[in-house]
Amino acid sequence: MYINGNWIENTALSHFAVTNPANGEVIGEALECQEAEVEQAIQAAQQAFKTWSKTTAYQRSKCLYRAYELMLEQKDALAELMTLEQGKPLKAALNEVIYGADFLLWYAEEAKRVYGETIPSARSDQRFWVNHKPVGVVAAITPWNYPISMIARKIAPAVAAGCTVVLKPAESTPLCAIAMFKIFEQAGFPAGVVNLVTASNPAPIGTIFCAHPAVRKLTFTGSTAVGKHLATLAAPHLKRVSMELGGHAPAIVFEDADPVHAAKGLSLVKFLNTGQACISPNRIFVHRSIADPFLAEFSKRVDAMPVGDGMNPSVRIGPLINQAAIDKVDTQVKDAISKGATLLNGGEAVILEGCEKGHFYRPTLLSNVTPEMKIYREETFGPVAAVIIFDTEDEVLEMANDTHYGLAAYLYTNNLSRAMRVFEALEFGIIGINDINPTSAAAPFGGMQESGLGREGAKEGIFEYLETKLGGVAI
Ligand code: NAD
C-alpha cells in the first residue's frame, strides 16, 4: 500500500496471495488493509488536496507527463506483469499499457484547457462569469480485466483537475496497481496526492469510501450489481459518483455489408481479452441473406485461435480470471444449446498440459441464438460469440435495444444513410460503425441506462472531477 508518499511495509498486517490464472501459481502477495489504513489514506489525500488543488495546471501537467514517459519506458515489464497476474496475451497486455499511458499524456495537456466563460446578463449593471474547481478527495475502485488502463483512466483526469485520490484495485490484480503507483512515485507526485490501499475483501473499504465526509467523489468501474450497491451507499451522503459498469453490446451486420470483413472484425473484438471486456459484443445480429458466409468465416477464424498461457507469443485466448468465470460461461453455453442453439466451435472448458490449474475455455461460436436464452440477456464476460439471425432493420433495432445495458454497440453497413439512422436509434454510449475500436483517451467513453453514469476520457472526463462556480457581480 502507498499512503502519504510511503510504501507500507513490515507491518503487523496480514497478506493475501496473488495467483497466475494460467497455472494457479502464486506470483506475489499484497497487504490486507484495515479501517485504520483507509482512514490514513483519506486523511493524507485530504491534507494533500490543500496544496495540490492550488498548484497550476502546468505543474500538475509535468507530473502527468513524467508518469507517461515512465510508463512507456517500462512498458515491457508492465505488460509481462499484467500477463502473469491477469492472463491476457502479452501483445494485448502491451497494447493496454500503451492505451493507459495515453490517458496520462492526454490529461497532461487537457489540465491546461479547463476554461471558464463569461455570460451576458439581462441587467446592464451585472456581469456573470463561470469557472471550475476540483471536487476534492476522490475514492476510486477499479476492476481486474484492464488492471492498468483503468487506473490511468481515473487517476489522470482526477489529478489533472487538481483532485487527490485514494484507489482500491481489484483483489485479483493488486500487483499491476502497485507497479502503477511506483510510477506515480517516480514521476514526482507530492506525498498524499495519490494513495493506494489493497484488500482481498472489498466491501468494508467501499462502505468507508461512500460514507467518509472527506471523500467528495466516488469513481467506480466494475459490475452493474456492485455499482448499484455503491451508489445506494453513497446516496445518503449525496456524494458525486461516476459509474463505468457492465455491458451487453449488440453488433449488427446488415445485408449490404461485406460478411467476410465483418466476421474478421467481430471475431477480433469478441475474443479480445478472452471476451472479458465491457464492450465485448455479446449478441451478434446477422442478416439472414449473408449468415452463411459470415458464419463460415467466423468459424474458420475461431478454429485458428490457440488457447493457452498468454506468455506464449502464439496464444490468442488466455485464461479466464477464475473458476467462477468458467462456470458462468459454461452455464450460458449449455443453456443455449438446450434451448436450440447450434454449437459451431468450442463449447467446453479445457485442461492444458503444464497449466492444469489454469481456467481455460475453448473459444465458442453459437448460432440460432434466441431471446429465451440466458446469453441473450446476461453479460457473458467470456469467449463465446452468440449469433442471432434477423430479417429487417426495424426488427433488429428493437432486439438490439432490448436490454437494460447501454454501453457499446457495433454495426456493419455500406449504406451511409442507414449508418446514420441506426447510430441515432441505438441506445448505447459508444457505437463502432464498420469499426471495432471506438475508444481513445481523446474520446468520451461511458454507458447509458444501467451501464453507468458519467464519461471517462476526453474533455467530459475531466469535468467528472470539477465543480462549476458562478460569479455574479454588480458593476
Ligand atoms: P466487480 O464489480 O466484481 O468488481 C469491480 C471492483 O469492485 C473490484 O475492485 C472489486 O474489488 C470491487 N468491489 C466488489 N464488491 C465491492 C463492494 N461491495 N464494495 C466495494 N468494492 C467492491 O467487477 P469485476 O468482475 O471486477 O469486473 C467486471 C465487470 O466490470 C464487468 O461487468 C464489466 O463489464 C465491468 N467493466 C466495465 C468497464 C466500463 O468502462 N464500463 C470497464 C471494465 C469493466
UniProtKB/TrEMBL annotation:
Q: Which Pfam families match?
A: Aldedh
Protein's gene: gabD
Task: Specify the Aldehyde dehydrogenase domain's residue ranges.
Answer: 7-469
Q: Which species is this record about? A: Oceanospirillum multiglobuliferum
State any single GO MF term.
succinate-semialdehyde dehydrogenase (NAD+) activity
Please provide the Gene Ontology terms (biological process) for this protein. gamma-aminobutyric acid catabolic process
The record's similarity note reads: Belongs to the aldehyde dehydrogenase family.
Q: Which domain of life is it from?
A: Bacteria
The protein in question is named Succinate-semialdehyde dehydrogenase (NADP(+))
Annotated keywords: Oxidoreductase
